[in-house]
Amino acid sequence: MPENAATTNLQNYGIQDDVAMHSESYSKHYDDDGRLKRTGTVWTASSHIITAVIGSGVLSLAWGIAQLGWIAGPTVMLLFSLVTFYSSSLLVQCYRAEHPNYGKRNYTYMDAVRSILGGDKVRLCGILQYLVMLGIVIGYTIAASISMMAIRRSNCFHQSGGKSPCHMNSNLYMIIFGATQIVLSQIPDFDQIWWLSTVAAIMSFTYSIIGLSLGIAKVAEEGTFRGSLTGITTGSVSLSQKIWRTSQALGDIAFAYSYAVVLVEIQDTIKSPPSEAKTMKKASLVSVTVTTVFYMVCGCTGYAAFGDAAPGNLLTGFGFYNPYWLVDIANAAIVIHLVGACQVFSQPLFAFVEKGVTQRCPSLERELKIPIPGFPPYKLKMFRLVWRTLYVLFTTLVAMLIPFFNDVVGVIGALGFWPLNVYFPVEMYISQKKIPKWSNRWISLKIFTVTCLIVSVVAAVGSVAGVLLDLKKYKPFHTNY
């Protein structure tokens, strides 16, 4: 039968229309990779990033500036923000391997490294990425327990009129936070925690604004700006302490800007068109700008209020006692925010482990349908329940063993900043763009990489030294605060 006759017959029977309608319906509900249509936008991606970035790290920035001083402190913060935005601009282009609109998708950071660099770098990237995620969750567990403990202590100080030392142990609060994470960890996918990220982002602004307001009020009350151009002096601390603290401050600031570890995973939630890279670059610009303004204002205000005595955690170091109810609200907001932030950093690790295990043992993918009156049955996967529960138990136990917020934050920030925020994005960009070796562009990118490596090493050394000093005087499960 001639082709035009066959086409006419198909049209007569409505077969072509059915195929076209099916194809159109398919494209409305599914993306080009066969997955359900992604719905993320600039604002949802920004919420995820802000939730991940404006975390408890903002509360240690006054302490960080106190170590560096009025000149170096804000300058270092601005430089970290520029490095973060530049490297994230390189990384967003790695989501699609060949073309920004229709190339093969890389669903995770590891997938991007695998498709562009390959070899042993994939394994190295995976180890670093998931160790940093694990470390961040441990750090956030410590921070959340400290904030919960601070609420009780502020009420204790208020009731006793400041006469009681109000010592208490953080273990109970870590257990409470861990129990909450066990429940929330059963949310199946990253896509489904957008509402949690939105709430968490609002909470981060809430406690940051409260901390800022209390700092401004204290400066106004005393009528003077504290602090010095070079930071804490060697008269207050020894020269070696000054060096370690300065190094640790770099780690704290690096931690406050770390979100590359989940950038590709966040980008995988974004709808297109326009291209995911274009949307994610806008989200990165919005997020880095907002966080830098908050960091500058909160860190500088805290330093102006307390000078060299700025606490390691602005709202729990008891620089502020009154109004106690406002401090309580701020700490409650921190806890709610960290509940969401832990999920932002945990979900990619959950997905990685579950994908690998179920590919090797498909029977673990089975679901149990639990009937709920008036609602669709809840689909429970036993492997997901057991593995995610064990993960939360592990992170909670480690947090109870090393509850040093400032030092842990510094170590995590230092270890994760260079390889994940700088090295891999630069190497993938060079490979994708086929930049000739020893060209001016290649040399400038390598200088950028080496400079950031030196900063990371210095920060890591100082932060590890801080942890070792803390461990000398700490008794696990017994030390009270």
Describe this structure in words.
Keywords: Amino-acid transport, Auxin signaling pathway, Cell membrane, Membrane, Symport, Transmembrane, Transmembrane helix, Transport. One of its GO terms (cellular component) is endomembrane system. The chain is mainly α and 481 residues long. It has one domain: Amino acid/polyamine transporter I. A hairpin with a 2-residue loop joins strand 1 and strand 2. The longest helix has 41 residues, at 120-160. Helix 14 (405-433) runs antiparallel to helix 15. It is built from 15 helices and 2 strands. The radius of gyration is 25 Å and the shape is globular. It has helices spanning 3-13, 15-29, 42-53, 61-91, 109-116, 120-160, 171-184, 194-222, 239-256, 263-267, 276-306, 324-360, 382-401, 405-433, 440-472, and strands at residues 368-372, 375-380. A two-stranded antiparallel sheet has the order 1-2.
What is the count of structural domains? 1
The CATH topology turns out to be Amino acid/polyamine transporter I
Return the average pLDDT rounded to an integer: 77
H-E order: HHHHHHHHHHHHEEHHH
Number of distinct helices: 15
Structural class computed from helices and strand pairing: mainly alpha
Ends: how far apart? Answer: 88 Å
How many strand elements?
2
**Main sheet specs:** 2 strands, antiparallel
CATH architecture, by name, is Up-down Bundle
Broad shape: globular
Unreliable spans are 1-23
Radius of gyration: 25 Å
Spatial strand sequence of the major β-sheet = 1-2
- Give the DSSP E fraction (strand runs of 2 or more residues): under 5%
